[in-house]
């Protein structure tokens, strides 16, 4: 049997060496000659032996290291298959890419071979599916519900991030770390880890959006599995079925659901932090280090979340060990692992000259400063704090979570004081609570755009805490109420699930509609979730993101342009105000393309596409727009824009255009009004 194992490993190594040579060997032979190719083959053989030794002597960590290897392996593979022509011919980068790919792929293969030979059997596989069948089915349903959003067009900040990612793929020549930072620190944020994870999808489906949205979908499915495993570990008196239902409900958290396909670091940060929480709960030191680094290199708030988690780990050890807490802290390998990658992040901040280089405009200094009257800085503004607290605790039925947590905690402490507490709470909740408190505090004190989408990590943590408190509350109820408790719990869960599903698509929450500014989309209500200083100067962009309702805008735009037989060469576009319209792109920085075949606005370019042209704003209307324009035009109006009156804009256009009848594209989540115009 031992001999057979060695044969399998040798065959796997040879096959991977062959695959690596096929992917990278031709370029190495063409650019560097035969000698480097021979060196590559020899280096792969030596690496295979070393990896076999590592897997044998570090068996405890082999599985964690294999998970870490997935990211560099997929990045190098995607580069080798789709972007190798971008590698600078005079660099050694192809050699390094080939070695990283082989080492990562062989480590994963070695681990899987060992795992299969030791544990794999039909009975074990059947047992796994029987044990976890409910969560697998529910995760499949949660993923399936997100599939219609796969082709969602990035808009507003998402469009800016995606455009910068595209630019990076066009300019990065794999010459070194400095160049990687220059191309993939998107918008000045520390997004190197974020890009590394999403780049394989983008390289495989260049500029087609589906590459990054498919990556998000895969990450979401994996994150939900980790949430399920976390629930199994921290919830009192939990079963696989209960943990599966809690996971399913969390998957339909409206903000978490609505941002799945909205390409941005905030959603990725929430997902990576879920992976980190899994590593924390199951004491996986290597994974804790890796996912901490991914959090750091996704957005600045990753430092806040990881810092809060570490503080929570200290509290956990104090709660569990009391007088021996200091010893337990010093023996916690996870803390050393997180410390190691924190030092790496500190080196990165020194390398770039600060925590981040992001500024909203050229008049600001990057980094942290305290100024309660400023923006994009630390400070205390009561109105801003009030908005952030409303978003976190009241938006999207979060008020139900808040009320449930308050009631459960009060009940638990009353029982503890009376000495009737039966269930020992898991102290693992300390890390989750610590991260939530740190994140909420930073959200309230860092004065920036008051958009709800920044709260997605906070929403995930709030749901985790809520289900923990509810499980604790239910476990403390008297046994005589078991049947009543069971059926009442099922009924409440069903109602809560229906409310969440509805809120994912429409704004149905009475608290949300009551506390936030309501916008009329023509056939339903959309809410502006930010701070409103002046109702006439609000920005209709990312402030509209709190579920999936905003996605109707692009669908309606495409439908309008298709209905009027739009073409950039024959049709002008008029809009009342450019405020968050994003109809032709984020002008003047980049333009979308119009695909004549699919009748949609797209990022990619092919023989069917043509770049869209600058739109005209009616509020700045002049006769020059008409004289320099085309014979055909279309006026497009978003009904949700406050103080935008169609009659006023039509009156400006009437002397120059024959105005067609008022038409409306009505979708379930909202509508868009348009008029066809013909030059007189």
UniProtKB/TrEMBL annotation:
Transmembrane feature ranges: 7-27, 39-58, 65-88, 94-113, 134-153, 209-231, 243-263, 269-294, 301-319, 397-415, 427-448, 454-475, 487-509
Q: From which domain of life does this come?
A: Bacteria
Q: Which UniProt keywords apply?
A: Membrane, Transmembrane, Transmembrane helix
Name under which the protein is recorded: Glycosyltransferase RgtA/B/C/D-like domain-containing protein
Q: Which species?
A: Lachnospira intestinalis
């Amino acid at each position: 049997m031992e001999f057979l194992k060695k044969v399998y490993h040798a065959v796997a190594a040879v096959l991977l060496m062959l695959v690596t040579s096929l992917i990278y060997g031709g370029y190495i032979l063409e650019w560097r000659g035969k000698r480097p190719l021979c060196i590559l083959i020899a280096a792969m053989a030596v690496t295979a032996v070393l990896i076999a030794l590592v897997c044998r002597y570090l068996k405890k960590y082999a599985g964690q290291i294999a998970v870490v290897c997935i990211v560099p392996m997929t990045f190098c593979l995607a580069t080798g298959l789709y972007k190798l022509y971008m590698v600078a011919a005079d660099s050694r980068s192809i050699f390094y890419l080939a070695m990283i790919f082989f080492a990562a792929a062989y480590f994963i293969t070695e681990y899987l071979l060992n795992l299969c030979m030791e544990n794999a059997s039909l009975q074990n596989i059947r047992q796994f599916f029987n044990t976890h069948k409910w969560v697998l089915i529910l995760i499949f349903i949660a993923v399936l519900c997100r599939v219609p959003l796969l082709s969602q067009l990035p808009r507003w900040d998402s469009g800016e991030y995606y455009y910068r990612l595209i630019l990076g793929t066009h300019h990065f020549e794999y010459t070194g770390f400095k160049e990687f930072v220059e191309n993939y620190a998107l918008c000045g944020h520390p997004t190197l880890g974020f890009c590394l994870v999403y780049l394989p999808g983008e390289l495989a489906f260049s500029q087609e959006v589906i590459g990054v949205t498919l990556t998000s979908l895969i990450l979401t499915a994996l994150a939900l599995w980790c949430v399920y495993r976390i629930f199994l570990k921290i919830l009192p008196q939990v079963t696989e079925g209960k943990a599966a239902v809690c996971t399913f409900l969390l998957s339909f958290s409206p903000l978490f659901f609505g941002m799945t396909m909205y390409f941005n670091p905030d959603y990725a940060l929430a997902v990576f932090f879920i992976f980190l929480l899994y590593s924390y709960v199951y004491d996986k030191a290597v994974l804790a280090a890796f996912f901490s680094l991914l959090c750091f290199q996704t957005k600045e708030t990753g430092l806040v979340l990881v810092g809060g988690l570490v503080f929570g780990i200290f509290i956990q050890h104090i709660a569990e060990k009391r007088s021996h807490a200091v010893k337990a802290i010093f023996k916690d390998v996870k803390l050393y692992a997180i410390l190691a990658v924190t030092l790496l992040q500190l080196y990165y901040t020194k390398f770039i000259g600060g925590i981040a280089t992001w500024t909203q405009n050229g008049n600001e200094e990057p980094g942290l400063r305290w100024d309660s009257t400023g923006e994009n800085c630390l400070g205390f503004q009561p109105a801003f704090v009030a908005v952030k607290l409303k978003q976190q605790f009241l938006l999207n039925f979060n008020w139900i979570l808040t009320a449930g947590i308050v009631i459960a905690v009060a009940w638990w402490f009353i029982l503890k004081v009376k000495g009737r507490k039966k269930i020992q709470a898991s102290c693992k909740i300390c890390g989750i609570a610590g991260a939530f408190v740190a994140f909420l505090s930073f959200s309230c004190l860092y004065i920036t755009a008051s958009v709800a989408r920044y709260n997605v990590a906070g929403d995930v943590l709030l749901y985790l805490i809520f289900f923990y408190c509810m499980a604790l509350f239910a476990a403390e109820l008297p046994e005589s109420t078991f049947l009543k408790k069971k059926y009442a719990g099922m009924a409440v869960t069903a109602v809560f699930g229906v409310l969440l599903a509805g809120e994912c698509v429409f704004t149905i929450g009475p608290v949300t509609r009551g506390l936030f500014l309501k916008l009329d989309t023509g056939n339903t209500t959309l809410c502006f979730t930010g701070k409103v200083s002046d109702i006439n100067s609000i920005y209709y962009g990312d402030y509209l993101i709190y579920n999936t309702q905003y996605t109707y805008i692009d669908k309606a735009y495409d439908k309008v342009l298709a209905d009027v037989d739009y073409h950039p060469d024959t049709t002008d576009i008029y809009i009342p105000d450019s405020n968050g319209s994003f109809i032709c792109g984020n002008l003047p920085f980049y333009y979308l393309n119009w695909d004549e075949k699919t009748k949609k606005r797209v990022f990619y370019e092919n023989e069917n596409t043509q770049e869209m042209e600058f739109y005209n704003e009616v509020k700045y209307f002049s006769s020059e727009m008409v004289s320099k324009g085309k014979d055909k035009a279309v006026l497009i109006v978003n009904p949700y824009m406050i103080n935008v009156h169609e009659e006023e804009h039509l009156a400006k256009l009437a002397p120059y255009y024959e105005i067609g009848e008022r038409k409306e594209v009505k979708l379930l989540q909202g509508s868009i009004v348009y008029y066809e115009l013909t030059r007189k």
